[in-house]
Amino acid sequence: MRLDNKIALVTGAARGLGRGIAMALAEYGATVFINDVSASDDTGQLVASIKAAGGEAAFIAADVTDEEAVRDMYSKIVDQAGRLDILVNNVGTDRPADIWHTSLEDWNFILKTNLTSCFLCSKYAMEAMKTNRGGSIVNVSSVVGHQGALKGHVHYAATKSGMLGFTKTLARTAAPFGIRVNAVAPGVIETELSRNTHGAEGMKQLASNIPLGLGTVRDVGLAVVFLCGEGSRYMTGATLDVNGGLYLR
How many domains are contained in the chain? Predict the structure, then answer.
């Protein structure tokens, strides 16, 4: 699972899952570019934490729903690091509403944030990785991509299902260039987003139905590390379920 000398980019890494994934990649040896739309105390603290633990990290700002910003971000990464080996499409958000309370503006915002960003970042990552004839792309989907959201959240579930189809299709396109494309589908993970979405009482109720209880960001981070390392060298187009037994398929 060692990722020494690998250059990684994690989108939306300031908090939550992205933070946990970035820390795990750095722990196993990767140099990690921490992406968010702008610098903040969260991004500064994350870079400092990784460096304090002996890892290498740098912040890179970009709105990953904007093609020009994405193109510029990759240009800067290649200029600074010489190449890109790993992309984790983690950026994502949700708005708690059912279909009757979801406006077209809400729908478009969630699709743009969760799915268009995945398309843009993967497109330009592929260009960078083709040069080196290898690389790994990991898309952060969700258990709702398999089973649908339990109540409402139709826009979020649609994007997470879309990421799974995107992963399988891109895996076939990328394979001749030595690039692997996989996904993780986390269940209920303790993050700021999940707490805001479900509330403290809702999180307790969800945990009561999960055989292994609530997951942590490190659980997801370690799964991503595996998908980026030698142990998964013959895996592409696959989805790892990191859900504590919440959904079995």
Answer: 1
